[in-house]
């Protein structure tokens, strides 16, 4: 995506096919050049252009980009190149929050229309990198991404079935029926579950969400029986008892004289004690402990 001014026509012009049946690299006298090579264009306008990075930049560490309109060429700007950088298209085009996703019946995935356990969802990706066989700019592709790609929702991996749309954006149908943990998933209808795409070349967590139906997520109980004592080294030792087996880690937070809590440690659920070594004699500290599970659900214990 390129933003600017005077880069093309005042109204948006959408992609078109050229005489070879490929998506054109020239629209309304607009071109986008990567190291002098024209890129396939999704749409153009005076202030915004959407172009696909040419496959010819594969193997490079950076590229020079220019915009051409009505024979006039802009100054160039440099951008780094990665082998792949998978990203998920989202409903609000921000790259975060609700994915632009459909359920197995073709309806939009939303908090009021969640996916059922064992079903599949379909969403759209970009940044897959070079393909196998090698991709050709503008072609309606049927090749596979040349990277190992996995889709994970709250640490639970589904099975992917992928293909391409005419503009070469990858469509991934993720079937969680093949994921045993997912069939026992615990996300509620009112919740959104964090998901991300990961490739071997470029692991990227996106913070994208999808809605899943099911029973309420289990909330770990707040740690019980807290104690605080000073050891022989003038350090403060905290102890507690886990309320249940749902927590996978504990967050230790501290404040001084009502200044506001800040996190000072994250420890695994097998621990039931923590020693605060960064303390000053004569100062009153308050602590709180958060029990967290892998669904990022917290149970809070607050003690002075």
Radius of gyration over all CA atoms, rounded: 26 Å
pLDDT below 50 for ≥5 consecutive residues: which ranges?
157-205
Percent strand equals 35-45%
Order of helices and strands: EEEEEEEEEEEEEEEEEEEHEEEEEEEEE
The best one-word shape is elongated
Q: Give the CA-CA distance, first to last residue.
A: 51 Å
Total helical segments? 1
The percent range for helix content is under 10%
Let me know the largest β-sheet.
5 strands, antiparallel
Quickly give the structural class: mainly beta
Q: Give the total of beta strands.
A: 28
Mean pLDDT: 77
Secondary structure layout plus pairing:
Blueprint: E1 2-3, E2 13-14, E3 30-34, E4 37-38, E5 40-44, E6 48-52, E7 62-69, E8 72-73, E9 77-80, E10 87-88, E11 97-98, E12 101-102, E13 120-126, E14 131-132, E15 144-145, E16 149-153, E17 156-157, E18 159-164, E19 170-175, H1 180-183, E20 192-199, E21 203-211, E22 224-230, E23 236-241, E24 249-256, E25 262-268, E26 273-276, E27 285-292, E28 298-303
């Amino acid at each position: 995506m390129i933003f600017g001014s005077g880069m093309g026509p005042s109204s948006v012009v959408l992609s078109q096919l050229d005489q070879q049946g490929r998506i054109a690299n020239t629209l309304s006298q607009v071109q986008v050049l990567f190291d002098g090579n024209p890129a396939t264009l999704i749409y153009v306008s005076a202030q915004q252009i959407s172009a696909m990075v040419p496959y010819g930049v594969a193997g490079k560490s950076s590229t020079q980009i220019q915009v051409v309109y009505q024979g006039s060429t802009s100054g160039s700007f440099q951008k780094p190149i990665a082998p792949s950088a998978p990203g998920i298209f989202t409903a609000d085009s921000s790259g975060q929050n609700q994915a632009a996703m459909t359920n197995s019946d073709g309806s939009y995935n939303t908090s009021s229309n969640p996916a059922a356990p064992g079903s599949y969802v379909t969403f759209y990706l970009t940044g897959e990198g070079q393909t196998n066989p090698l991709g050709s700019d503008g072609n309606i592709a049927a090749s596979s991404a040349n990277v190992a790609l996995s889709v994970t929702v709250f640490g639970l991996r589904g099975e992917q079935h992928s293909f391409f749309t005419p503009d070469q954006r990858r469509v991934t149908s993720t079937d969680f029926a093949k994921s045993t943990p997912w069939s026992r998933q615990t996300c509620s209808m009112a919740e959104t579950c964090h998901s991300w795409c990961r490739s071997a070349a470029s692991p990227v967590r996106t913070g994208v969400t999808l809605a899943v139906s099911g029973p309420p997520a289990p909330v770990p109980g707040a740690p019980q029986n807290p104690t605080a004592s000073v050891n022989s080294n003038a350090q403060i030792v905290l102890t507690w008892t886990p309320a249940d087996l749902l927590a996978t880690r504990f967050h230790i937070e501290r404040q001084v004289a009502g200044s506001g809590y800040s996190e000072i440690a994250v420890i695994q659920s097998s621990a039931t004690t923590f020693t605060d070594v960064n303390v000053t004699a004569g100062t009153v500290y308050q602590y709180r402990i958060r029990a967290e599970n892998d669904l990022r659900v917290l149970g809070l214990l607050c003690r002075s």
